[in-house]
Amino acid sequence: MYKTLTSSDTMEETSPVYKKRKNGPVQQTLVLGDLSATLERERARKEEEKKNAAPSVPKKTKIKVQEAEFEKIFSISRLGDPVYAREMKTFYEENGILCINLENKIDKRKAVREFVTSLFREMPYRDEFMLNFKLANGKEVHVNNDEDIDDIVDVLLEKRINAVNLSRLKKCLLPHATFGAPCTPPSFHMKIENEIRQDPQLYWAVAFLLNNEWINCDFNRAIFRVPTVTEGEDFLHFDLDPRQIRSSVDSELQGKVCITACKFICVPGSNTDEFLKRFVEVYDPLYPGRKLGQAKYSLDPDRDPWGLFGKQRAYIVPAGHAVFWSPKILHGHPSFDRETPISIGFYLGFHPEVSPAERAIRRELFSTGGIPEKWPSGDRIWFFPKKFQNFPKVLQSTVIDKLTPDAHEVLVTTRTTQSGKVVPDMKPWGWKGTFEPFPFTPLGEYITGQRKWGE
Ligand SMILES: [Fe+2]
Fold it and tell me: How far does residue 307's CA lie from ligand 1's centre (Å)?
């Protein structure tokens, strides 16, 4: 029988606060000079276009993001060397993005196995909607069979999952599949996440980077992105409103750990104070009516006088590496076309020590297996994609209709919309069995914000 969660009710599909900054192997020089002339020309061109345009549907520009490799990747085992660590810091300060090789800290197969047995096997779905594949030799494998798990891991790690298994995987995906970061309880509590969260070498590297030993990691979730499902790369945006950036933001670091290879898209140079100042002067008039302080300040390729869409780079993060970025960077999301392998990992950011209230929440969540009610940004976390609230039929077909009879009885409810209509709704679910708290080290309790630094 599924327990329902009490400490949080819902989750949001937007990611927590991240964003990132510039850099890359291909050094980009942003053309910041003579911006007003550029802008003027752009306005004139648009005016001309408007005059000549037939009254047809405006066409959206689509730009393919160019791939790039990091100029330098830092090895976690060498970051105890102050000279090497300083080199890393300089690289981050100059580029705003940083890739660290975690070396032997991640056993890829073991980690993916945990995704299968924890994330997927914890779903309260009927057998036909639980992860299952057909192997090349014709054998059928299913997540509920222990002896099939290694075969399932093999399929997930294939360079190109075949059409039959991709179709089965899509049928069995967790809520938030489109965004690629599920918000079910195991997503926040996997062992692999906690092992890396409390890793002393990584902690010291980040503390050095941020000039602060009293930092906490964020309490964030897993990443599982599937080809042809995850949303595409034309969502170029700042996570923070560039017109209103907090001064404390430089004390934070956003990041993710890539169990399998992934990409990180950003615009080199877009996090510097100079860039942001000029960006606001030039771009903000092109985006009238935006409320100050809005999260996810996104750009439109047809309102892009500096050609920032073309300046995006998709940095390749190899398997077993972490990528970190400044919270101020203009960034995108990689598209997942048919040729893209499944991307598996988890978010891992760092920030100054949390408040006593947040510490109490974290202690509770880590001991009970709950999920947070809000992101550090203050945005509410939605257990299911927020948009399902407006599309109850989608909630019905993508989640409710897949539930086991037991789970259906416990979890499904109704609610009345503003117009007085009664529609299906759901409670978030907890764990199938008993949640086992992770045995954190004392350092791990400090890093994860369960224990106050200095006490
Ligand atoms: Fe973002």
Answer: 19
Domain residue limits at 291? 15-30+60-106+178-384
Inside any domain, residue 148: no
Q: What angle do the packed helices 82-95 and 200-210 form, to 10 degrees? A: 60
Q: Please give the distance, rounded to the nearest whole angstrom, from the Cα atom of residue 18 to the centre of ligand 1.
A: 5
> Could you tell me if residue 102 is inside a domain?
yes
How remote is the CA of residue 19 from the centroid of ligand 1, in Å? Answer: 5
Report the separation in Å between the CA atom of 395 and the middle of ligand 1, taken as the mean of its atom positions.
25
- The pTM score is 0.84
At residue 64, the pLDDT reads 81
Please give the distance, rounded to the nearest whole angstrom, from the Cα atom of residue 293 to the centre of ligand 1: 15
Phi first, then psi, for residue 97 (nearest 5°) are -140, 150
335-373, pLDDT tens digit by residue?
A: 888 999 999 999 999 999 999 999 999 999 999 999 988
**Residue 320 in domain:** yes
User: How far, in Å, is the centroid of ligand 1 from the Cα of 63?
Assistant: 18
Q: Which of 32, 339, 27 is nearest to 161 (CA)?
A: 339
| Residue pair 180/230 in contact by the 8 Å Cβ criterion | yes
Instruction: State the distance from the centre of ligand 1 to the C-alpha of 116, rounded, in angstroms.
Output: 26
Q: 55 CA distance to ligand 1 centroid (A)?
A: 34
pLDDT for 171 beyond 80: yes
Lowest mean pLDDT among 4-8, 89-93, 272-276: 4-8
Domain count, the chain: 1
**Nearest to 129, CA basis, from 406, 387, 412, 398:** 398
Which whole number is the average pLDDT over 304-309?
Answer: 95
Quickly list H helices, 23-81. 35-52
DSSP 379-417: PBP-SS-GGGGT-HHHHHHHTGGGB-HHHHHHHEEEEE-
In terms of pLDDT, which residue wins out, 3 or 229? 229
Residue 207 covered by a domain: yes
Q: How far is the CA of 131 from the centre of ligand 1 (A)?
A: 29
Residue 137 Cα to ligand 1 middle (Å): 41
Instruction: Provide the CATH number for the domain around residue 231.
Output: 2.60.120
